[in-house]
From TrEMBL:
Keywords: Oxidoreductase. Belongs to the short-chain dehydrogenases/reductases (SDR) family. It comes from Epilithonimonas ginsengisoli. The keyword S-adenosyl-L-methionine does not apply. This is Glucose 1-dehydrogenase. PROSITE patterns: ADH_SHORT. SUPFAM superfamilies: NAD(P)-binding Rossmann-fold domains (SSF51735). It holds the Pfam family adh_short_C2.
Length: 249
């Protein structure tokens, strides 16, 4: 018996990095997985990878910053697999690097639109479906920057703090409805999101982690799996770090 047997799970931004690792682990643990991404090629290749490893998955394209597309995504999930038990709202972007006074309004709006509005749209439609199911679990991917600053990325810091707040509200509102909601705060993880960083910048980032290295997507996925499973049955409204000690100093 695997820990997600008979569960239907949805992961946004599952074509790459952390979301891909989560989708693969969910499938390995027995869930039927809806892989969603704005990038069709990456999403389809994630499904192929899951299937070739013996798992069950299907791709649904959606831009999480578009509420109609998110509503359609939840509908497509139920059409494909009959219900929705687990949702991981993972899709997110970094945005431009500038001090707050110079931060462009366009980038501010874009980052908040994907990282915050997109998570709200996901939660809204997932919660409605989970209430129909009689329960469910949501995991929102925040960041260490849900609790500490990311200098030169005020939109990112703001969006991730807000995701932690949204998660708390949902935990409280749905505590007696058999729906749990938690947020995860990874430190810097080796993913394509970090690819644009220069060697010097990566070295400086690495030095901020007491463990002396960046994290791996699979290490984040293990925490997400725990929070998505019955093993965390008394946990809701929480924010859990997977940060190599980053926020301990
Ligand atoms: N990499 C890190 O160091 C790190 C640290 C903490 C938190 N996070 C968070 O983890 C999440 C995943 O990051 P990652 O590093 O795996 O990034 P990534 O760039 O490797 O993957 C993000 C995926 O999301 C998709 N995506 C982007 N915008 C989308 C949209 N509007 N709708 C649907 N899909 C969209 C992309 O196509 C991509 O496949 C993000 O929320 C990010 O903020 C990342």
């Amino acid at each position: 018996m695997k820990i997600l047997d008979n569960k239907v799970a949805l992961v946004t931004g599952a074509g790459s990095g952390i979301g891909l690792a989560i989708a693969k682990l969910y499938a390995k643990e027995g869930a039927k997985v809806v892989v969603s991404d704005i990038n069709e090629e990456h999403g389809k290749s994630a499904v192929a990878e899951i299937k070739s490893a013996g798992g069950e998955a299907t791709f649904v394209k959606a831009d999480t910053s578009n509420p109609e597309q998110v509503e359609a995504l939840i509908k497509a999930t139920v059409e494909a697999y009959g219900r929705l038990d687990i949702a991981c709202n993972n899709a997110g972007i970094g945005g431009e690097q500038a001090t707050t006074g110079d931060y462009s309004i366009d980038s501010w709006k874009k980052v908040l639109n994907v990282n915050l509005d997109g998570v709200f749209y996901g939660c809204k439609y997932e919660l409605n479906q989970m209430e129909k199911n009689g329960g469910g679990v949501i995991v929102n991917i925040a960041s260490i920057h849900g609790t500490v600053a990311a200098p030169l990325s005020s939109a990112y810091t703001t969006s991730k703090h807000a995701v932690v707040g949204l998660t708390k509200n949902i935990g409280v509102e749905y505590g007696q409805k058999n729906i749990r909601c938690n947020a995860v705060g990874p430190a810097y993880i080796e993913t394509p999101l970090l690819e644009s960083a220069s060697g010097d910048m990566k070295e400086a980032l690495t030095a901020k982690h007491p463990m002396g290295r960046l994290g791996k997507s699979e290490e984040v996925a293990e925490l997400v799996l725990f929070l998505s499973s019955e093993k965390s049955s008394f946990m809701t409204g929480g924010y859990y770090l997977v940060d190599g000690g980053y926020t301990a100093i």
